[in-house]
């Protein structure tokens, strides 16, 4: 199957058929598995045989999902989690010791940031941060005890890009593990392992499910590292449920075609927003105006589903805009078939001081659109009528 394309592998890789000859993979709702005899059981527990023992360790549905993700990300091995955050936490839990140090981009998912600032310090694991515009500062942050270089690209919610090739080079030079949260791009658009990442993390809750139904997470990458993460997880219990794995494996069959359409719609939305008087600027990786357009072209196949823009008029304009939307949902998810709009300054990031918000480039008027799969004319019409309610005499800056 090696020479088959992404779409074909996503559809045609599946777990072994049962004696019933089913076409579509069945759901294996079983917490444990049986053995032929005492010797079979002994050998299985001794890991001399690759057998399912207990669904906290492995299950045919989670294995099918993981194997697809491993193939899509050009990885060696993987393990699936109940949520994206379980994947992030278990990676740190398995690979770090007290006294270790992380260098991370400051623009990371909110709960990941909370792990860095509130929980990992309980185990004497400290984190130093670089801003998206200061990759040249990374080397000065590396210490003798630094183990992990951590980043997300494109970033949330600012849609800035980090040069994966550069991060890969730095990690190699300083013997660090490069861990990339590839949730925004999906394996269809970007494969960090090709640029030197050791591990890639996904919240499968987002575009991998893509329909706003189930939570999930996955880590894929180097075999020896994944083995550590697997052993940590099989003993601490953050495993993905077989049901969610079954849903997510089905979702991967349509990942390429869905993401392709998300990107087509998002680019049109971004181009529309750029023409609007109430909008100061638009950030979308495949807009020529994106300051890192060249990096986008180098490491991404298409621009993704997330568009960020800044409304002239700040906080009140942001709230006004959200209130005026009729079609787009106000919700915390992203990567759904339904378009979702958020205003970080008044919601997800409202507890941050203004200076801290600005460090991660969240200005008062910043709006994030997760562009869905509705007809793009309907999405644009909704954004347009909501923009029209904003009574600022805005001039493009
Ligand atoms: C949502 C998200 C996560 C966390 O995933 P959950 O499945 O919600 O736990 C981590 N990283 C990024 C970039 C995300 O968008």
From TrEMBL:
<dbReference type="GO" id="GO:0016765">
    <property type="term" value="F:transferase activity, transferring alkyl or aryl (other than methyl) groups"/>
</dbReference>
<comment type="function">
    <text>Catalyzes the formation of L-homocysteine from O-succinyl-L-homoserine (OSHS) and hydrogen sulfide.</text>
</comment>
<comment type="subunit">
    <text>Homotetramer.</text>
</comment>
<dbReference type="GO" id="GO:0005737">
    <property type="term" value="C:cytoplasm"/>
</dbReference>
<keyword id="KW-0808">Transferase</keyword>
<keyword id="KW-0663">Pyridoxal phosphate</keyword>
<dbReference type="GO" id="GO:0016846">
    <property type="term" value="F:carbon-sulfur lyase activity"/>
</dbReference>
<dbReference type="InterPro" id="IPR000277">
    <property type="entry name" value="Cys/Met-Metab_PyrdxlP-dep_enz"/>
</dbReference>
<dbReference type="GO" id="GO:0030170">
    <property type="term" value="F:pyridoxal phosphate binding"/>
</dbReference>
<protein>
    <recommendedName>
        <fullName>O-succinylhomoserine sulfhydrylase</fullName>
        <ecNumber>2.5.1.-</ecNumber>
    </recommendedName>
</protein>
<dbReference type="GO" id="GO:0071268">
    <property type="term" value="P:homocysteine biosynthetic process"/>
</dbReference>
<dbReference type="InterPro" id="IPR015424">
    <property type="entry name" value="PyrdxlP-dep_Trfase"/>
</dbReference>
<dbReference type="InterPro" id="IPR015421">
    <property type="entry name" value="PyrdxlP-dep_Trfase_major"/>
</dbReference>
<keyword id="KW-0028">Amino-acid biosynthesis</keyword>
<dbReference type="InterPro" id="IPR006234">
    <property type="entry name" value="O-succ-hSer_sulfhydrylase"/>
</dbReference>
<dbReference type="Pfam" id="PF01053">
    <property type="entry name" value="Cys_Met_Meta_PP"/>
</dbReference>
<dbReference type="GO" id="GO:0019346">
    <property type="term" value="P:transsulfuration"/>
</dbReference>
<comment type="similarity">
    <text>Belongs to the trans-sulfuration enzymes family. MetZ subfamily.</text>
</comment>
<feature type="modified residue" description="N6-(pyridoxal phosphate)lysine">
    <location>
        <position position="206"/>
    </location>
</feature>
<keyword id="KW-0486">Methionine biosynthesis</keyword>
<comment type="pathway">
    <text>Amino-acid biosynthesis; L-methionine biosynthesis via de novo pathway; L-homocysteine from O-succinyl-L-homoserine: step 1/1.</text>
</comment>
<dbReference type="GO" id="GO:0071266">
    <property type="term" value="P:'de novo' L-methionine biosynthetic process"/>
</dbReference>
<dbReference type="InterPro" id="IPR015422">
    <property type="entry name" value="PyrdxlP-dep_Trfase_small"/>
</dbReference>
């Amino acid at each position: 199957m090696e020479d088959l394309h992404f779409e074909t592998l996503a559809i045609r890789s599946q777990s072994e058929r049962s004696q019933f000859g089913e076409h579509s993979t069945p759901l294996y709702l079983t917490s444990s598995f049986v053995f032929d005899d005492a010797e079979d059981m002994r050998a299985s527990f001794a890991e001399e045989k690759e057998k399912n023992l207990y669904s906290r360790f492995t299950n045919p549905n989670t294995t099918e999902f993981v194997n697809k993700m491993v193939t899509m990300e050009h990885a060696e091995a993987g393990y699936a989690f109940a949520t994206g955050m379980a994947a992030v936490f278990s990676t740190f839990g398995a690979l770090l010791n007290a006294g270790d140090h992380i260098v991370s981009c400051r623009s990371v998912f909110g709960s990941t940031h909370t792990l860095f600032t509130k929980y990992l310090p309980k185990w004497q694991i400290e984190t130093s941060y670089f801003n998206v515009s200061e990759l040249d500062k990374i080397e000065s942050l590396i210490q003798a005890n630094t183990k992990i270089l951590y980043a997300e690209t494109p970033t949330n919610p600012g849609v800035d890009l980090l040069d994966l090739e550069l991060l890969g080079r730095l990690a190699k030079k300083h013997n660090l593990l490069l861990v990339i949260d590839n949730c925004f791009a999906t394996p269809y658009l970007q494969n960090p392992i090709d640029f030197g990442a050791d591990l890639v993390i996904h919240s499968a809750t987002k575009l991998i499910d893509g329909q706003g139904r189930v939570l999930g997470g996955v880590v894929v990458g180097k075999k020896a590292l994944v083995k550590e993460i697997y052993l940590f997880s099989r003993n601490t219990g953050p495993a993905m449920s077989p049901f969610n794995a079954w849903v997510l494996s089905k979702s991967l069959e349509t990942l390429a075609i869905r993401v392709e359409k998300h990107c087509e719609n998002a680019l049109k939305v971004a181009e529309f927003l750029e023409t609007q008087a109430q909008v100061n600027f638009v950030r979308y990786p495949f807009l020529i105006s994106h300051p890192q357009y060249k990096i986008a072209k180098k490491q991404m196949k298409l621009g993704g589903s997330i568009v960020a823009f800044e409304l002239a008029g700040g906080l009140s304009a942001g709230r006004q805009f959200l209130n005026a939307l009729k079609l787009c949902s106000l919700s915390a998810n992203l990567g759904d078939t339904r378009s979702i709009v958020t205003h970080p300054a008044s919601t997800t990031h409202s507890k941050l001081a203004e200076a801290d918000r600005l460090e991660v480039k969240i200005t008062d008027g910043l709006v994030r659109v997760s562009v869905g799969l509705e007809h793009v004319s309907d999405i644009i019409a909704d954004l347009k009528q909501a923009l029209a309610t904003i009574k600022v005499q805005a001039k493009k800056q």
